[in-house]
Design a protein that fits this description.
Keywords: Membrane, Transmembrane, Transmembrane helix. This is Polyadenylate-binding protein 1-B-binding protein. It comes from Lithospermum erythrorhizon (Purple gromwell). By secondary structure, this protein is mainly alpha-helical. It has nine helices and no strands. It is globular and about 65 Å long.
Length: 317
């Protein structure tokens, strides 16, 4: 990101994507290793877990007597639990690695895969606390969403047109607007947790403030990412999981889709980092690169925590 800090606020979606794609060229070996060790396992798990759950679900559907249902349900729940733990762990690890590496490049700090891995334990603690706060809000969101989903089902059963339209509208807004906006809030809070001396609820509040004025741009970026991931998952399910006996085609297409998802996830993590700088620029909160450099060094034991006078906001670049 060679642009002046004050010009970052004017970046369009195309400009943000262009900047994001160009970042790995500054340290290709580091990003190659991050992609291979963290983002690839994450992407593979996202798609491949359905290969393990689909046969179990099929067997449960074809077992009306329920003679094997207990064992199959136990197996299914075990797989889902392990999958969620794996997804959670590698999602945080990938976010920590990419955000830290991008910030190091931004401050002209020496970058290597070893330094990134060394910083991850400290970064991960902050991201985990932020994730816990996000989970609290997600539980509240899901409770409201399920309540209106039940209301929608009741409206269909009772053939209440007014109730149906109202509940359908609320479900649509909650799913499409609130869910996407909350995802943007979460991604931005993750970057804040790494790059600023705050995390948890404070990071979410700061993320909300940064999104003001850039909410539409954040919404479009997250919606585009989720839409692409949805298409990839749909193609994987229809061609690979339900593809019949043509194993050659299923293997080739499956490998190709995993590769595409790896690229999409890497670019997505890069985009959320660049978007943070765009939001900071929009609010005229310049980033003191020397302070950020020292802050990043603190994760490696190179620096004492930031002085209270340096908050990395309201500073001139």
């Amino acid at each position: 990101m060679d642009l002046p800090a004050e010009d970052l606020q004017f970046l369009s979606i195309a400009d943000i994507l262009k900047e994001s794609v160009s970042i790995p060229k500054q340290s290709p070996k580091t990003f190659y290793l991050i992609t291979l060790t963290l983002i690839f396992p994450l992407s593979f798990a996202i798609l491949a877990h359905s290969l393990f759950t689909h046969p179990i679900l099929t067997q449960l559907q074809n077992d009306p007597s329920g003679t094997q249902s207990s064992a199959e349900w136990s197996k299914l729940l075990t797989i889902q639990f392990c999958y969620l733990i794996f997804l959670f762990a590698f999602s945080l690890l990938s976010t920590a690695a990419v955000v830290f590496t991008v910030a190091s490049l931004y401050t002209s700090k020496a970058v290597s895969f070893q330094s990134t891995i060394s910083a991850i334990p400290s970064v991960l603690k902050r991201l985990f606390v932020t994730f816990l706060w996000v989970s609290v809000f997600m539980v509240a969101y899901n409770v409201v969403f399920l309540a209106f989903l039940v209301l929608l089902i009741v409206a269909v059963d009772t053939q209440n047109v007014v109730l149906f339209v109202f509940s359908m509208l609320v479900v649509f807004v909650l799913f499409l607007v609130v869910h996407v906006y909350f995802s943007a809030l979460w991604h931005l809070a993750s970057v804040v947790s790494v790059l600023e001396p705050i995390y948890g609820f404070a990071a979410m509040r700061k993320s909300y403030e940064l999104l003001q004025g850039k909410g539409r741009l954040g919404f479009m970026l997250v919606f585009g990412y989720l839409a692409i991931c949805g298409v990839i998952n749909g193609l994987f399910g229809s061609i690979v999981v339900h593809g019949g006996d043509d194993y050659g085609t299923r293997i080739v297409v499956g490998g190709f889709l995993v590769g595409v998802l790896v690229i999409v996830n890497l670019i997505g993590l890069l985009v959320q980092s660049v978007f943070y700088y765009v939001c900071k620029s929009y609010h005229h909160q310049g980033i003191d690169k020397s302070a950020l450099h020292d802050h990043l060094g603190g994760y490696l034991g190179e620096y004492v925590p930031l002085k209270s006078s340096v908050q990395m906001e309201n500073l001139d670049a």
